[in-house]
């Protein structure tokens, strides 16, 4: 059964062709950025960052205020995690030991792509099938990381359990189906190109990590959950603030 947030998202969904366009543009741009950055300089990364912000803003023009706020929440949360876990704790590191400028807006594109995949008519019509496929595929990937991969991947298995929880009890199953597809592709492509590399163990030295972790989408799901739960209240507060400012100026 669809949740309240899923039904609200369906009411605010763009036309089917527009939804498919969001998926296509976001995925093509993410792929292009990874390919260009594979042999780039810091200045190229900065240029990619500016262009990624422009692509994100262009895509958000066709979205509702709620989706725009959700995307903003993801960018803020993801950026905090990026700067904490990459330069500070070095759980994973980028080529220049920095956080490339395209990464914060890139998280916005990842969220939009996942959300758009979840809104596709075919996915909505076959949501149980898609959920089961992600559970089976993600579970097999996590099992591979625990038994057969070149590096033991306990973190990936834990994150898959998080993903399973989001799929079973989260506020929007379609979004998490999309997140699995987008984030898994992003992590495999990014690590294969050497854009970033995960360390073999976490900072405590206790938790083995794959490169990439198999269940990375489950870790990313916490950003999505924050967006879905916080954005409505933040949007209401924003509208209230604008009304108060308007009344103050008029008085």
Q: What are the SSEs and their pairings?
A:
Blueprint: H1 4-11, H2 16-37, H3 42-60, H4 65-88, E1 92-94, H5 103-119, H6 121-125, H7 127-147, H8 154-169, H9 173-192, E2 196-198, H10 216-250
Antiparallel strand pairs: 1-2
Structure write-up:
Helix content is 75%, strand content 2%. By secondary structure, the chain is mainly alpha-helical. Helix 3 runs parallel beside helix 5 (103-119), helix 4 (65-88) packs across helix 10 and helix 8 crosses helix 10. It has a two-stranded antiparallel sheet. The radius of gyration is 19 Å and the shape is globular. It has one domain (4-250). Mean pLDDT is 92; it is low at 1-7 and 9-13. It has 10 helices and 2 strands; from the N terminus they run H-H-H-H-E-H-H-H-H-H-E-H.
What is the chain-wise order of helices and strands? HHHHEHHHHHEH
Number of helices: 10
Taking the sheet with the most strands, its summary is: 2 strands, antiparallel
Report the end-to-end length measured between terminal Cα atoms: 48 Å
Class by SSE composition: mainly alpha
Record field, number of beta strands: 2
Alpha carbon gyration radius: 19 Å
- Any idea what the shape is? globular
Percent of residues in beta strands?
A: under 5%
- Strands of the widest sheet, in order across it, are 1-2
Count of individual domains = 1
Average pLDDT, rounded to a whole number, is 92
Poorly predicted parts: 1-7, 9-13
> What is the helix fraction of residues, given as a range?
over 70%
């Amino acid at each position: 059964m669809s949740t309240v947030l899923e039904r609200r998202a369906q009411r605010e969904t763009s036309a089917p062709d527009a939804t498919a366009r969001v998926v296509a543009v976001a995925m093509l741009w993410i792929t292009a950025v990874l390919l260009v950055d594979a042999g780039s300089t810091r200045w190229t990364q900065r240029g990619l960052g500016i262009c990624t912000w422009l692509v994100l803003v262009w895509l958000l023009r066709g979205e509702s205020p709620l989706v725009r706020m959700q995307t903003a929440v993801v960018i803020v949360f993801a950026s905090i995690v990026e700067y904490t876990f990459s330069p500070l704790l070095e759980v994973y590191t980028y080529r220049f030991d920095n956080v490339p400028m395209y990464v914060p807006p890139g998280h916005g594109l990842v969220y939009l792509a996942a959300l758009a995949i979840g809104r596709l008519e075919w996915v909505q019509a076959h949501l149980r099938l898609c959920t089961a496929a992600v559970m089976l595929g993600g579970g097999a990937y996590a099992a591979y990381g625990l038994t057969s991969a070149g590096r033991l991947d306990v973190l990936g298995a834990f994150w898959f359990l998080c993903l399973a929880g989001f799929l079973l009890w989260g506020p929007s199953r379609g979004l998490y189906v999309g997140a699995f597809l987008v984030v898994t592709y992003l992590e495999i492509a990014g690590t294969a190109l050497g854009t970033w590399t995960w360390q073999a163990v976490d900072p405590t030295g206790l938790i083995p990590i794959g490169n990439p972790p198999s269940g990375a989408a489950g870790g990313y799901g916490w950003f999505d959950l924050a967006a879905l739960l916080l954005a409505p209240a933040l949007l209401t507060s924003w509208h209230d603030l604008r009304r108060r400012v308007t009344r103050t100026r008029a008085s």
